Amino acid sequence: MAAGKRxxxxxDGGDLSGSVHFAAGIALCRAAGCVVTGxxxxxxxxxxxxxxVAADEETHGLLMSMTRSLPHD
Length: 73
Description:
This is Phosphatase. The chain is α+β, with helices and mostly antiparallel strands.
């Protein structure tokens, strides 16, 4: 994402903000200007779940509209 080779990344896992496997990537994407939220569109953290990283607001909006149509637990 931060290198400009992908438009988006989506996962519906739990809270990934503190994961050693995701924390550095999240920080790099934020520094590169990517939009980073949970799968529900709110800031990532303990209350949210999953991860959506998009290159820009337009791509993030498209992903949010697609994920809203999916069944959620």
